[in-house]
Amino acid sequence: MRKLMVSILVLGILLVILDRVAVVGVQREIARQIEAKYKLEATPTVTIEGIPFLTQALAGRYEEISIQIGGITQHGVKLSGIDATLNGVNAPLMDLIQNAAAVDLRAERVTATIVISRETLDARAPRGIKVEGTGDALRVSGNLNVLGQQVPVTADLKVEVNRGAVRLTPTNVKLAGGVPVPNANRLMTFTVPIGELPFNLRITSVRTTPEGLAVQGSATDVPLRS
């Protein structure tokens, strides 16, 4: 009986080790494929959720995979990074081991958050205007050049999605000394182009955060390899 218990314990330990070795290998392969497919600047971090891993691997289906992509540049705009969740990824373990290049890695659905930092917002804002704020509220302040004069101004920011870009429009504009400035809103409005995102993400919403802007995106039937 004692030998049987020891054998079961050893077998359990071996299965745990095999489980962890297998998950690392599959995560590495998925990360490599995603990096090549979407021409990323660095290899993403891939985490297959759920334990044990081998039951998912043998079924060839992973219900949830977390992806962290570092900073990327789109149309000259620096994005702080992308946190994505892949659901319903089909990738048979033996196919990945024997011929990974031929596997049609694909996710049924992807949801993600892309962060646009305040530094990036400042870089896109009109000259003399700086993005600031406390908590989740974004504001702008600075000086507008009006007929050669610097007019101090503050305003709240309204954030909207507009054809693959984030548009920021000032509201509640306040000018120092009550100086009238024609089209002040137009002079202070600016956009941050997002362009084509990894995973074919489509922007669904934008919210302000202490870090800047969090852009939400989603996509379905997403290829993960070239």
Write a concise synopsis of the structure shown.
With 226 residues, the chain is an alpha+beta fold. Helix content is 27%, strand content 45%.
Strand content: 35-45%
Strand order of the largest sheet: 1-2-5-6-13-12
* Overall spatial form: elongated
Order of helices and strands: HEHEEEEHEHEEEEHEEE
Biggest β-sheet description: 6 strands, antiparallel
Our Rg estimate from Cα atoms comes to: 24 Å
Structure description:
The chain is an alpha+beta fold. The chain folds into two domains: 2-110 and 219-223, no CATH class; 119-198 and 204-212, no CATH class. It is built from five helices and 13 strands.
Walk me through the topology:
Blueprint: H1 2-37, E1 45-48, H2 53-59, E2 61-69, E3 72-74, E4 77-79, E5 81-90, H3 93-99, E6 106-117, H4 118-124, E7 129-132, E8 139-146, E9 149-161, E10 165-175, H5 184-188, E11 190-193, E12 202-209, E13 212-223
Antiparallel strand pairs: 1-2, 2-5, 3-4, 5-6, 6-13, 7-8, 8-9, 9-10, 10-11, 12-13
Keyword list:
226 residues, five-stranded antiparallel beta sheet, disordered N terminus, elongated, 2 domains, 13 strands, single chain, six-stranded antiparallel beta sheet, 5 helices, alpha+beta
